[in-house]
Amino acid sequence: MLDVEPGVTYRAGARIRIPGTDWSFLVPTGWQSTRPEDSEMPFLMAEEGKGLGMIFPLTDVTRETVRDHLSQPLSLLHGLSFIPAGAEADTDLSIARSYQGEDLAGRALAVLGPGNTSVIYFLMGPPDEASGYQSVLEGLGQSTRFAASVSGRGAGL
């Protein structure tokens, strides 16, 4: 397991841990991850195409709080915004949702962890590339490992 360091690129198959947490995931096949100097969280970038992924760890959240997050429009960097599209897909350990942006499609997967912790993976890109996002998110969900929760991070996107 590697702690995510700013400016380092992590290739598919690397297990990376988010600093300040005991939470980790595997970089999915066909993707890589890097953490910009000015960000606490790494980004995921498709090796081919224009797919981009963001990661939102949450603490002190219930299933209902996470569901509420996923039902709201998302305003991201550089003025990108997405509105929920379609129904949620709910399982015991996760909640998934599709989103629509101006020229982009998005998909989110919230993985529910122990002790009211969760992580939301959000992938976005051109609509013609979005069909592969479901399997990428499923892989992220299956590879996510939570350990003891670390306080100090509030709930919010």
What report would you give on this structure?
The model is unreliable at 149-157 (pLDDT under 50). With 157 residues, this protein is mostly beta strands. It has 2 helices and 12 strands; from the N terminus they run βββββββαβββββα. The longest helix is centred in the last third of the chain and has 11 residues, at 133-143. The strands form 2 sheets. It has a 9-stranded antiparallel β-sheet, with helices on both faces. Helices cover 13% and strands 39% of the residues.
**Helix content, binned percent:** 10-25%
User: What's the rounded overall pLDDT mean?
Assistant: 89
Question: What's the alpha carbon Rg, rounded to whole Å?
Answer: 14 Å
What is the N-to-C succession of helices and strands? EEEEEEEHEEEEEH
In short:
The protein is built from two helices and twelve strands; from the N terminus they run βββββββαβββββα. The protein has 157 residues and is mainly β.
Feature tags:
mainly beta, 9-stranded antiparallel beta sheet, 3-stranded mixed beta sheet, disordered C terminus
Please outline the helices and strands.
Layout: E1 2-3, E2 9-10, E3 15-17, E4 24-26, E5 31-34, E6 43-46, E7 52-58, H1 63-71, E8 74-75, E9 81-90, E10 94-101, E11 105-112, E12 118-125, H2 133-143
Parallel strand pairs: 1-3
Antiparallel strand pairs: 2-5, 3-4, 5-6, 6-7, 7-12, 8-9, 9-10, 10-11, 11-12
